[in-house]
Amino acid sequence: MTELIFIFLQICLLTFIFSLNTIIFNNRYQFFSLFENICVSVVLHANMVLFLSFFNLNLSKIVNIYIFIISILILFNLYKPKKFISFFDYKQGRIYFLLFLCVVIFLDIANNASLSWDAEKFWFLKVLNFYDNNPIENLSNVANSHYPHLGSLLWTFFWKISLIDYEYSGRLFFGFIFIISILCLVDLLKTNNIYKFVISIFCIFISYDYDIVFSGNQEVLIFSFLSIAMSCFYHLTEKKKLNENFYLILILMICNLLIWTKQEGAIYAFFLILTLLFCFKLELQKKIIIFTVYFSLLFIRLFINKFYNFEMNLNYGYNDFSILSIVDKISFIRIILILKYFLLAFLKNYLLAIGFLIFILSFIDKKIFIKSFYIYFFAVANFSFIFFISLLFDGDLIFLLKTSLDRLIYSISPFIFLLIINYINHYKKN
Amino acid sequence: MKKNSILKLKKFVNKNLLILIISFFVFFIFIQKFNLVTNVYYIINKNFYERLSTSYQKKFFSGFCKKESHGYIIFVKTNFEHLSIPKIINFEEFRRKPYWIFFDNPSNISSKKIIILNYNKDINKKKNIININKYKILDNFENRCLYLEKHD
Questions:
Q1: Is the overall model pTM greater than 0.95, yes or no?
Q2: Are residue A115 and residue A245 in the same domain, yes or no?
Q3: Do residue B61 and residue A117 have CB atoms under 8 angstroms apart?
Q4: CA of A32 to nearest chain B CA: how many angstroms apart?
Q5: pLDDT digit string (tens) for A97-134?
Q6: Cβ of A194 and B16 within 8 Å?
Q7: Number of Cβ within a 10 Å radius of residue A62
């Protein structure tokens, strides 16, 4: 019973921390919805914790600094109580809906509790490193030090500040960010709250799989960050270009988080940047800044890896990049094999099937196709990337396709939510 | 005042009847899919390690006393006192050893106590992996998983 109460307290703690309006200092941004505000806070806080870890601080110090900053935020929020809308935004019932979803998913995580094969091999050792109060410098003594550490850091961070003593308490944060990112996307729908409630549940229903999402794999973070980025894209396409700079900065911060979540995160971030540069009407100066910031973030990643003596190699299975070897790997049989597993993934993943259906439907109305062009651009770039990394793999291709393809496709699938939202909103308007 | 709000509610229900019925069903399917009631029951009645052990029995790479045998290691962790992490020997040599279950520094592994997983007499005879006679058996699960302590 105590554990159950602590889980409820953890839900309240997470909702409270991230409801603190982090942009309270600027009057322009008070119109954000509850879910959007929480998403912005999550991105800001995750960047802050990551940034603190670069200074080789141990977790206790990071937690202390974090608590200090949260205390300042609380003071400012109390000072401007009208803007402290989020946590007490009870009139619309959204907070109850968020709490309800958290209860359902947190209890599932608490009961299942097991870690996936990958989580045990790649991520949990990093978690233990941070939990033992070792700074990131010590990651060079942990296996696979070249793997980014953000997911493990956040996992440990929320384990440490939780009342629950077990490791799954850190993973409850993964559940929280998963829910809030989907709610933030569904909130873009121009319908009433009941429809949003049904669609949110439907979206969570089809994108939830304990083994892929919550068993310690980092795909859930990529999925959630991309979901938030998709909602930023949506705002950037709106005719009233309110807060353009704000959303651009948010996307860049998400790119930073992606770079530090998984190896392939840097590529997903690159595709986000490419989509921004090619599909959105931005001033040239802004485009140059975005491009420069992205490469600076990549440079920082390489610099930190070098500075702390982490391994600098690519993933297992990519050893030979000579032209001869690449040409050798591009064979008809391998292409057919990959396409076969892509097809299987399409049949297994309901989300992809829905996305494909909307893709076909959008050909009927050219307007919606043009309107959603940036989503297709992002999707094609990602699918091509997954196709080529599979094609260039040196090891056992069938094993890779069987064990990784589902997860790779899952992590990029938030674009389908945006596709659905675009489609519904388009016909709602007309 | 009360009548007014009841009228408002009636109007709202009449207007959104279909979607309310759908949301009602979606709500229950959702709770069913996520086993909400079962989860609450297990969290109240089973401790974390029992749930963890049960959960690993469904994993393709583990079980109670097979493959990586998370279940047996959890059993040893919860039923015996540990000053250091016992050494794990898995007779299926390609399997990983989940030392993390002890939530302790991996440098704290001691070979004074040993957990043997997937024990096979013939392999032991052939490869001479361990001389069991040198150890006191603290626990034996179906002669496959053993917890041993070195004689003083």
A1: no
A2: yes
A3: yes
A4: 26
A5: 888 899 999 999 999 888 988 888 888 888 988 988 88
A6: yes
A7: 23
